[in-house]
Amino acid sequence: MRSFFLFFVLFFSFGFTTVFSQTDSLQILSVAHFNRVLQLNSNVELIDVSSKKEFRKAHILGAFSAPSSKDLYQRIDSLGSSKVYLLYCKYGDRSIDAGIMIFEKYHIPVCLLEGGLDAWLQAGKEVEN
């Protein structure tokens, strides 16, 4: 129990950028944690894997739209593997599939928004249309 508490304190003290290693795969984060990574890490790439129609309705400020695996791969190929990739979709299911694809191809850490954009909205977070 003490080691868990120490890990928890260190995790939040040093921020999320120091926690990721090449052996990490997918991190499913709550809205609060996802937002914290987004705000505190300048080396983040926010990608919405929702459909084009869903993206036009609403998306998190600064998100890049990648509705297909081709769009997603092109974006990562152009930015490289040194970024921390934050993925989300409307509900959360598509982002899990996309995160798995990214990790299998590039072996880089990927963070996913638990509950997707719907959870983001329920938490009162802002979006742009």
Structure description:
- With 129 residues, the protein is of the alpha/beta class.
- It has a single domain (19-122), classed as Rhodanese-like domain (Oxidized Rhodanese, domain 1).
- 47% of the residues lie in helices and 16% in strands.
- It has six helices and five strands; from the N terminus they run H-E-H-E-H-E-H-E-H-E-H.
- It has helices at 2-14, 31-40, 52-57, 69-79, 93-106, 116-122, and strands spanning 26-29, 44-48, 64-65, 84-88, 110-113.
- Strand 2, helix 3 and strand 3 (64-65) form a beta-alpha-beta unit.
- The longest helix has 14 residues, at 93-106.
* Helix residue percentage: 40-55%
Q: Nearest-angstrom radius of gyration?
A: 14 Å
At the fourth level of CATH, the homologous superfamily is Rhodanese-like domain
Q: Enter the CATH topology name.
A: Oxidized Rhodanese, domain 1
Shape: globular
Task: Summarize the helices and strands and which ones pair or pack.
Elements: H1 2-14, E1 26-29, H2 31-40, E2 44-48, H3 52-57, E3 64-65, H4 69-79, E4 84-88, H5 93-106, E5 110-113, H6 116-122
Parallel strand pairs: 1-5, 2-3, 2-4, 4-5
What is shown here, in short?
The protein is built from 6 helices and 5 strands. It is of the alpha/beta class and 129 residues long. α3 (52-57) links the parallel β2 and β3.
